Amino acid sequence: MNPSAAYAELERRFHRLSAVNRAGAILNWDRSTMMPDGASDDRADQLATLNVVAHEILTAPDMPELMSRAEEGKGGLDSWQAANLREMRHVWTHANALPADLVEARTRAASACEMAWREAKKQANFKILLPTLEKVVEITKRVGAAKAQALGLPFYDALLDEYEPGGRSARIDALFGELKAFLPDLLQRVLARQHAAGQLLELDGPFPVEAQRKLGEQMIRVIGFDFHHGRLDVSAHPFTGGTADDVRITTRYDEHDFARALMGVLHECGHALYELGLPRDWNRQPVGNARGMVLHESQSLLMEMQACRSRSFIAFAAPRMREAFGKRGPAWETDNIHRLYTRVMPGFIRVDADEVTYPLHIMLRYRLERAILEGDLPLAELPGAWNDGMRELLGIVPPNDAMGCLQDIHWPDASWGYFPTYTLGALAAAQLFAAARAAEPGLMDEIAQGNFRPLLTWLRTNVHGKGSLADTDRILIEATGQPLGTQAFKAHLESRYLSA
Amino acid sequence: MNPSAAYAELERRFHRLSAVNRAGAILNWDRSTMMPDGASDDRADQLATLNVVAHEILTAPDMPELMSRAEEGKGGLDSWQAANLREMRHVWTHANALPADLVEARTRAASACEMAWREAKKQANFKILLPTLEKVVEITKRVGAAKAQALGLPFYDALLDEYEPGGRSARIDALFGELKAFLPDLLQRVLARQHAAGQLLELDGPFPVEAQRKLGEQMIRVIGFDFHHGRLDVSAHPFTGGTADDVRITTRYDEHDFARALMGVLHECGHALYELGLPRDWNRQPVGNARGMVLHESQSLLMEMQACRSRSFIAFAAPRMREAFGKRGPAWETDNIHRLYTRVMPGFIRVDADEVTYPLHIMLRYRLERAILEGDLPLAELPGAWNDGMRELLGIVPPNDAMGCLQDIHWPDASWGYFPTYTLGALAAAQLFAAARAAEPGLMDEIAQGNFRPLLTWLRTNVHGKGSLADTDRILIEATGQPLGTQAFKAHLESRYLSA
Predict the structure, then answer these.
(1) Interface residue of A42, A52, A281 to substitute, partner B, most B CBs within 10 Å
(2) Percentage of chain B with pLDDT > 70?
(3) Per UniProt, where does Zn(2+) bind (chains A, B) (predicted)?
(4) CB B66 within 8 A of CB B52
(5) For this structure, is B268 an active site residue?
(6) Which helix or strand (DSSP H or E) is residue B428 part of?
(7) pLDDT digits (tens, 9 = 90+) for B386-444
(8) For B19, which residue in chain A has the nearest alpha carbon?
């Protein structure tokens, strides 16, 4: 087979892989939103089968030969095809790094550990989790070793690379070091300033679910969510799922607190706009996929934290909130709502954290997961190490492990190497938003009018439309002039929380 | 490979086939209920890929050898395994009867014809349909010829066999002949009797959708629908989809007529109960599937026509209808509602037909589709032949082709051989219901109390729980003492419409 025929055959196979994965994505969404509770075994069987089908496409015996042949003809490919072939190789390498029995062992260990985790969390008892988590750690170490060899990367980087292609721990260490030197002091100053500013007025509920749903829908329409290619539904744990042509975001409503669902929907909408903004014609090939978790998280945080917790957006949203719930009075004025939406307070729970303390939660997890995987921290000592870290970084100690080291599903779920992408995403969000504001000086005024078109156009051009053509740093450099750094994030926090 | 290893390998492959098909079933449901309109190309790509994956499982080069080896060891299989192997052979034979290019040509021709049909129907212009329908007919003839050869069956039977395994046109001719000798005269007597009984009182709407939804949900709960393994939603064309563990029924609501949605839901519920009643442990093997379209339709018609249009059920339902819509007065009395729900009137549209005239619609389609496929009726003469048939069988002539030969999607959709299963199902429904009443003398009294357990238990034992262990006639003989016949259906119509 000549190189161009080999490349064409690869496109055909990766198209099929994409179709199988997209089918699975809709079935996963359905499982969390629509599926009756008695169908979980049935659905698990369907999803496991689709995974096997996908895996077989990637591990077909003639794939190495096809890829080598196609790579021999690289000079004849255009840049889009060359990037696509590079992404194919990356996907293939990850899929083939692990023997089938290790993949299966990981799935089984994660499934058993997740069950134990639910019980351990309910009882706030780490001992219930320990045996299955030991197993997950042991298997994760084997996974990391196998991937390190296949990818030629250090152990932890090989795990990270699955979520953030090109992500490297040496960079993370440097970036987190800068944040560590900055955030604790900033936090104290913000707390003092907020304390001095006096009491906040809480918004008085209840807030009917239907009114919340309508408000959320109205707001994401304003931002640019396209209901011809997406849905908004309810699930126990909010997420963005589906496909780039059919993006499905979910939330959950609390009648006593509408901000949580509203800000959650705006956050997921950021993820959704990234998917919706991927080039239409590319999304059935690897080069058409979103770049990685760092840029994905940057898009949700850019929308939620940078754009929608800004004073400008709250000025636009406040009257619409009052209208949605039929409220008025001092608590419902823009200033008070903006102060509520930018309140900083150290807490135990990561997912409830504000943008100042959130990175501290992540730094703790990053530090601990590396120590566990590298053998420096016996798993039995995790609760103590967690609490020490919370005291050091946030100045508070959780009253029990359910509010401590048992709070997240990621470790039981075998998603080691995932946590740092949250904070790298926050850094990228600040950097991209600053660049967008510099490029479009009227951006915030437009947002205050409910016009997101300038922002969305800039994001489409500089992030969404690039798919996986280049790596994360290249995309950031082209968009902002800099590789990923902490400067814009620090400047953002100082501007929002210490000046004005 | 020894025979038992070959059989075990076949079970593994058919399990995978089932999982792929079940995944496709949920995606099909989603397409009709949840999918945003911009995602149809994306979804078509997913479904086409899953079809290819399923087809490749069935056409794997080693399948003939595996089946032959397994069949050599038939003596060592238990009866369940032997039946499963027989069903595997049947599924394989249908899948392998057609060369891949003919399958693809059929899909493409049906898709083009369906598009033309929508336009032709809108404009009531058969000429718009003719060219693409010619193509569908031509391909259907090739399909029939290929299947006839593979199955060793007459041409039309080979098409019918896909929907109703074991179904034969000689049987249909005989059964339809008996109906033809019976129905037109019965119809005249029923019309005269209903005319003599005087004016009916129409139910006064509007009927809010939410109240209709609640009433439908209440009624199918009464009948035994299990919401832990199913859902009720809205779609443009009502259907029952999903899987046996996750059955999804749909309806559409008309604010001016609640009977349509309610009776539609009860009809689909009959389909759903069949799926839900299939043996839990079998449903990932061919022997665990529903037997065929005749028994499937029998279950929906048994529930809708036999059980839920009975005087007994209406006596139970009427007070609940009054409560659901806050109504009272003479129109809302049981007698009037029952008369409304058993009103007979020749009409142009099959899907709106009552149970007396419905078989006449089917006999017309059966006669015409055979004539077309056998070359006795040029397609251009279809509208005239249709109208002649309507005059002969129902005494009315449609004012245009939209209300005549353009009303159904089946022919454009390439579903030739499907129509007769509707009426065979109606015969089976009457026969099964009569047997259930004979076996459970208190059945109707229980239904009048809203207790469907005796009926459902009988159906579970005699129909649902048998999956595809035996053929349709064997199941009917064991359940009713007779192969499929017209006697019970005729007795039912006489009893409901001419006595009492």
Answers:
(1) A42
(2) 100
(3) 267, 271, 297
(4) no
(5) yes
(6) helix B420-439
(7) 999 999 999 999 999 999 999 999 999 999 999 999 999 999 999 999 999 999 999 99
(8) A46
Nearest to B228 among A37, A46, A230 (CB): A37
What is the DSSP code string of B164-192?
A: STT--HHHHHHHHHHHHHHHHHHHHHHHH
Question: Among the options B87, B162, B164, B268, which is catalytic?
Answer: B268
Grade residue B500 by pLDDT with cuts at 50, 70 and 90. Answer: low
Q: Is residue A425 part of a domain?
A: yes
Q: Which of A97, A117, A150 is the last residue of a domain?
A: A97
pLDDT of residue A1: 87
B447 inside domain: yes
Asked if residue B275 and residue B199 are part of one domain, the reply reads yes
Q: Which domain holds residue B316?
A: 148-500
The secondary element (H helix, E strand) that includes residue A240 is: strand A240-243
Q: Nearest Cβ partner of B228 from A19, A24, A38?
A: A38
Given A66, A97, A128, the domain boundary residue is A97
Smallest CA–CA separation between B72 and chain A, in Å? 29
- Contact of B60 with chain A, judged by CB distance below 8 Å, is answered with no
Q: Are A275 and A412 contained in the same domain? A: yes
DSSP A396-412: ---SSGGGTTTS-STTT
- Phi and psi (nearest 5°) for B124? 50, 45
B34 touches chain A (CB under 8 A): yes
Residues in B touching A46 (Cβ below 8 Å): 19-20, 22-23, 26
Instruction: State the DSSP code for B230.
Output: E
Query: Which of B37, B56, B246 should we substitute to test contact with A (largest number of A Cβ atoms within 10 Å)?
Result: B246
Residues B206 and B304 in one domain: yes
The overall average pLDDT reported for chain A is 96
Same domain, B93 and B152: no
Nearest-Cα residue of chain B relative to residue A50: B20
Residues in A touching B228 (Cβ below 8 Å): 36-38
> What ipTM was assigned to the predicted interfaces of this complex?
0.94
> Do both B471 and B325 map to the same domain?
yes
Q: Give yes or no for a contact between B243 and B22, defined as CB atoms under 8 angstroms apart.
A: yes
Q: Kindly list the residues from chain B whose CB atom is less than 8 angstroms away from the CB atom of residue A13.
A: none
Would you call B234 an interface residue with chain A, using a CB distance cutoff of 8 Å? no
Q: Where are the alpha helices (DSSP H) in A124-168?
A: 126-151, 155-163
> Residue B366 has what pLDDT?
98
Minimum distance, in Å, between the CA of residue A215 and any CA atom of chain B: 20
Q: Are residues A419 and A314 in the same domain?
A: yes
Report the binding-site residues of A for Zn(2+). 267, 271, 297
CATH number reported for the structural domain that contains residue A273 in this entry: 1.10.1370.30
Residue A328 reports pLDDT greater than 70: yes
Distance CA B237, CA B251 (A): 7
A:B CB pairs within 8 Å: 102
Residue type, B440: E
What region, left, alpha or beta, does residue A198 occupy, with left being phi > 0 and alpha being psi -120 to 50 degrees?
Answer: left
Q: Is residue A408 part of a domain?
A: yes
User: How many CB atoms within 10 Å of residue A64?
Assistant: 12
The pairing of strands A240-243 and A246-251 is: antiparallel
Residues B93 and B221 in one domain: no
Split into its structural domains, chain A has a count of 2
pLDDT at B371: 97
B11 inside 8 A of chain A by CB: no
First to last CA, chain B: 66
B464 is in an annotated binding site: no
B470 lies in some domain: yes
